[in-house]
Amino acid sequence: ASHVRQRKDPYFGDGQKKKDWHNKEAIRRDSERVGNGEQGKPYPMTDAERVDQAYRENGFNIFVSDKISLNRSLPDIRHPNCKNKLYLEKLPNTSVIIPFHNEGWSSLLRTVHSVLNRSPPELIAEVVLVDDFSDREHLKKRLEDYMAQFPNVRILRTKKREGLIRTRMLGASVAIGDVITFLDSHCEANVNWLPPLLDRIARNRKTIVCPMIDVIDHDHFGYETQAGDAMRGAFDWEMYYKRIPIPPELQKLDPSDPFESPVMAGGLFAVDRKWFWELGGYDAGLEIWGGEQYEISFKVWMCGGRMEDIPCSRVGHIYRKYVPYKVPTGVSLAR
Fold this sequence. Notes:
Elements lengths: L1 H7 L9 E2 L4 H8 L20 H5 L5 H5 L20 E2 L5 E7 L4 H13 L6 E8 L9 H7 L5 E5 L6 H11 L4 E4 L4 E3 L4 H10 L3 E10 L6 E2 L7 E4 L5 E4 L14 E2 L8 E4 H6 L13 H11 L3 E13 L17
Parallel strand pairs: 3-4, 3-6, 4-5, 8-14
Antiparallel strand pairs: 1-2, 6-13, 7-14, 8-9, 10-11, 12-14
Subcellular location: Endomembrane system; Membrane
GO biological process, one term: protein O-linked glycosylation
Membrane topology: Single-pass membrane protein; Single-pass type II membrane protein
């Protein structure tokens, strides 16, 4: 019952003032939206729309993505307790870093729109799109012209193909926010996703926090939880990332509370900007994605920090059917 009492008292615990960060008006507007893919519903595809070419360039069905609004509504699938949680009134702001390489137009824009639509504006210092040497025409002047309407969105470009890790590092190196939040370029941030992440960092700057990653189907773009939902990150002897159940002794009385995780999934997390550099950032010798989440996870636990998953923060991610591009040096993913 203690956590119920806490919610009613805006000064619980450490005496710092709390508030409800939900944007009730935006939630109401979203609830009234109807149309293709709205409320995270699958898009009803015809056979003609299941064309393989749509996948070849992106690893997911870009035709369907293009038919869904850039501002589409998502189902609020958080634990019901999340709706009543209060977070610190004074939170650090964040630079949202979104690296991309030859990303589809609508999937990249929907990522940016979801962040701007579902984040308190005072918490977004900037959104930094980092282009890893894309050669698609729509990602050049057209993208710059489009993003000019958002004063706090900027585009950086690498001078040669660098790969995900160095591209992220470039974004982090110019970030001005107190916190760095990394997202992939085909995500959709869900309702009130940001305050629960920043709240944990405000309480302990050495905490790295990860949202719950929901699944956006690569075919019909339906939005749903991952199998098993809240689980810890781990890995097997071949260093493949695995999700394992939270052991009984670590389960919280309130399943919506943050829980510790040994290893992050990789693409979506927030970290205090100075702490990220104190940890040495990423190893700049990492050519391709897949090992960086272990490096940062091991470092944070070994250097007096901690890593948590935050059930009240949810971000959808398109898990691609396959990776549609070559990695920078032309090396094979298999070693």
